[in-house]
């Protein structure tokens, strides 16, 4: 279902200011999602090839900032559109996948004992990320297949 249909259905985000705020928050949410993925892949790469780089200050701080803003904008969109998880299975699927993504990400960057463990977790995390984007775009728990 397109965002336009949702906007009309929700009756909340309609015209003018609401609409441009929705557009802005949604695009910032998407931009943060892209940046979050880039920063994750970079750190996952370093965790296998050059772990000492993970100790740099910006590498430890920036991804957390970006992820916090990403999640905050996600929650903001949810409130603005009045999309409640119990009414939207895709949102529940997205949030569950997000928890899995965070877990895999932590194995990929911190907890994985061997480079192979870390690389495998990173690969799975990217797949889960792709699934999350699919749920958001298709509004379906089957993600790209929905
Ligand atoms: C890794 C985390 C996340 C990623 C990669 C992600 C990705 C996306 C993308 C790409 C869109 C745009 C979809 C479109 O084209 O219509 C989107 C929209 C949205 N996201 Fe997220 N998101 C994430 C986390 C969250 C979280 C935590 C929430 C809520 C708590 C959330 C709620 C929403 C909502 C409500 C929309 C608006 C859907 C619409 O306009 O129809 N997102 N997300």
How many β strands by DSSP? 0
> In sequence order, what are the helices and strands, one letter per element?
HHHHH
> Which structural category fits the helices and strands?
mainly alpha
The overall number of domains is 1
Strand composition percent: under 5%
Shape: globular
Biggest beta sheet summary: none
Bound molecules: protoporphyrin IX containing FE
Q: How confident is the prediction overall: mean pLDDT? A: 92
Percentage of residues in helical conformation: over 70%
Rg: 17 Å
> What are the segments in which pLDDT stays under 50 over at least 5 consecutive residues?
1-5
Helical region count? 5
Taking the alpha carbons of the first and last residues, their distance comes to 11 Å
Transmembrane segments: 20-45, 65-84, 90-109, 121-140
Keywords: Membrane, Transmembrane, Transmembrane helix
GO cellular component, one term: plasma membrane
InterPro entries: SirB
């Amino acid at each position: 279902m397109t965002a336009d249909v949702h906007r009309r259905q929700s009756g909340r985000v309609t015209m003018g200011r609401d609409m441009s705020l929705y557009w802005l928050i949604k695009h910032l949410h998407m931009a943060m999602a892209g940046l979050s993925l880039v920063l994750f892949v970079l750190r996952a790469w370093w965790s296998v090839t050059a772990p000492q780089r993970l100790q740099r200050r910006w590498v430890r701080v920036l991804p957390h900032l970006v992820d916090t803003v990403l999640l905050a904008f996600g929650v903001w969109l949810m409130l603005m559109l009045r999309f409640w998880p119990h009414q939207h299975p895709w949102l529940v699927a997205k949030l569950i996948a997000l928890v899995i993504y965070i877990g895999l990400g932590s194995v990929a960057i911190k907890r994985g004992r061997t480079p192979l463990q870390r690389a495998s977790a990173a690969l799975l995390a990217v797949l889960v990320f792709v699934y999350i984007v699919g749920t958001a775009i298709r509004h379906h728990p089957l993600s790209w297949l929905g």
